[in-house]
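cache lookup: miss for this entity combination. No prior model stored, computing from scratch. Input as submitted by user K.M.:
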Amino acid sequence: MLYREAGQFKTNYVDDQAVFPIRQDRIGIAVILAVAFVGIPLFGSDFFISAVMVPLLVFSLAAIGLNILTGYTGLLSLGTGGFMGVGAFACYKLTTIFPDVNIIIWILVSGFFSCGIGILFGLPSLRIKGFYLAVATLSAQFFLDWAFVRIPWLVNNNTSGAIEVPSRYLFGMPITGPMAQPEVRYLVVLSIVALLTLIASNLVHGRIGRSWMAVRDMDLAAELIGIRLYRTKLLAFAVSSYYCGVAGALMVFLWYGSAEPAVFGIDQSFFILFMVIIGGLGSLVGSFFGAALIYGMPIILKAIVGLVGLQISPATVEHLTFMAVGGLIILFLIIEPAGLARLWQVGKQKLRVWPFPY
Amino acid sequence: MDILYKIFIDPFMQMGGAPDLLVQTLWEGLVAGMLYALIALGFVLIFKASGVFNFAQGIMVVFAALTLVGVYDLLRGAGVPSGWLAAYLALAIALGVMGILAFAVERVVLRPLVNQPDIILFMATFGLTYFLIGFGEFVFGGNPKRMIAGELNLPSGAVEFKMAGGFVAMQKIDIAAVLIVSVMVAGLSFFFQRTRIGRALRAVADSHKAALSVGISLEQIWVVVWFAAGIVALTTGIMWGARSEVSFSLQIIALKALPVLILGGFTSIPGAIVGGLIIGIGEKLGEFYWGPLLGSGIESWLAYFIALLFLLFRPQGLFGEKIIERI
């Protein structure tokens, strides 16, 4: 009833090709942004902001990165954790070598380092396809893992071998390090994620995105209609690892505060891949849904166990959580293999034609 | 110049200088390679018959071994007197559990997801991995256990050979592992080439549709391959568990088997074996002779780089079926 585009006429192509052609969508996104930028910092508790919202945004960004590679270009990658690590370590090196430059600039620049590494490990994608490529990207993951641990220069020869985030300021306010307020960190993360999401949205809706999707659907055919395969694939690797790199830098600087190399292990890569697949391959909004579901699921499960007040040991809870997460992943795949994004689409369609079935 | 010398000359000088060490390293590589090959074999079986890239193979190894040890403990606790009787009973029960697992996977996971893209099925095996980790820990506890190698009449101790001016020590359990793996591969090859079900399996691997049209039951075949992969997993679990202990950290050996898999090709049983040997031996030699140059721990990614190098020249692995693309 409310969600219906009747009466909204497009009189030029620009309107017709807009990302949100329906007015209700534009209102909806404005409301979401208002809540995210104003409502949550004002009314959210510190715990909610720093332990739920910040991780959620960071994971969403990483999921968008992987989605560009796997969902839009069809190149399965298991090296996400490694690329995130490159971003984090690059940011750390940059800000300790040049402490006077604003940290936000370095967070955004550090993505370019992981971008370079991504292109390097993306080179085999020109010859290797499918699961063979997935295993090939694992070599990036393991090599980077090893490099993070074995090269002490990366952490300025710390004895702990971990990144320890220094305090950095923006307009006189600490935004990283132990003194930073959760609200400030949250707003910084949110701004960066919103900006990069906007850019990603423009990328995937434009010529570049079209060529990515053509490569995904069938790379041979895409080549025949004049898409230069190696450029397109490497560009996907570059953009994807840029996003992952920024997500990694955000994760360490604005969420964890200090991080050991183990954070960027293979588990992280799988975790992000879950988000992308459960959220929906080839959907930006799906990346957010997937991140919310996969990150939120164990928290909610634990909360339920706590609420019910069963007398079971923490270890058992852990095991049951594992079982439940595994079971739910299978369940979600069976219910909707195209991911939560498809459910969202279906729901919107139902609203449009309501009260009629179709 | 110095670095070139260290890379290209010095390791070979060391090999020539101490041939017994070289033989020892080669032997260790061979054993490791055999075990990698065994895990890769589990992957190949399932991939061939259903096109599913079964990430859960590693956890199936752990789960099978845990079941074996856990049931053994239960039986001993329930008063079965002799160790070997309990051990073999436990072995039978563990086989049964793997059978049930195969059946359940087919019913609950594969059947509803038939005809979905590969990546979705791949994800589903991830879900299975998580489920099995939780389930295994829930039932048998998370602490490491000792494999009942002695009770299963597997030999222990080492034999030493005098060779090339030195001694080469071989663990008896490793020799047994190599023998068992060889027998198993021969058995599986026989099964695939000569038996009715084996032929049906190869038909399914060639084309699902054509196999269905001549009356082969896909469901049955899938249960059979998952069960076969379960048996392979149990064997791997026993062998690997006897070398260290049975715990969930064993599941990372699945990641070790992936380069073997891409090296040999996803669809080739001989490929899994040859790939396993190349990776196992390459890894041990690399770690032993070139490792000190880069700092230790290169074992973790060296295998992947070896495999990647091969892949650049043969994108479908050494023995994989040639990928033919049509528009």
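stored under new cache key. Chain A has a mean pLDDT of 87.
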